[in-house]
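Support case: user asked for a sample of complex input and structure output to validate their parser. Sending the pair below.
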Amino acid sequence: QSALTQPASVSGSPGQSITISCTGTSSDVGSWNLVSWYQQHPGSVPKLILYEGTQRPSGLSTRFSGSKSGNTAFLTISELQAEDEADYYCCSYTRSGTFVFGTGTKVTVL
Amino acid sequence: EVQLVESGGGLVQPGGSLRLSCAASGFTLSAFYMSWVRQAPGKGLEWVSVTNSGGTTDYADSVKGRFTISRDNSKNTLYLQMNSLRVEDTAVYYCVADQNVWGQGTLVTVSS
């Protein structure tokens, strides 16, 4: 159950788009479209922003979108805003019936 | 209001035991996937355990054989029994319903 691989940090200027990758294996990310993404601000509880790869919870901003290619899932944040500065984690269901989180990515808004 | 409230965290010596509780309100816990997720101080999220509506359970390799997830439907409460605790189990433990509803977390510190 090795953690999914994410870049340690990604940065962008307000209004720009950024993309965070989440690389796993054919036993997790590559097996099905069951990747979720979480946003965590310092000192706060994680918040679900995408599930089943591309689905947004009710009321969530359309600036967050997801995609996948092979064993890698992606989170794109468009029209970057100061409030988007946070840690982001991916999470995938696995063939073993367990879940595995990514290593986490710190997003900095320049 | 849909809410999860964890309790039971605290300071315990290595090799000791603790039982965490997670009380649900505003929804029926038994109808959902319920998970425990932990976060060591300054570190990332780590999935710990899950139980589904059918009662099936699964665990991360790091806790398998030491932790047990269970639920009391009559009390609408989820539990995590943690035995043989290690220093590396020190973390904030979150209860999560169906990926979307998170409790505020309870801190477990394993130290001599």
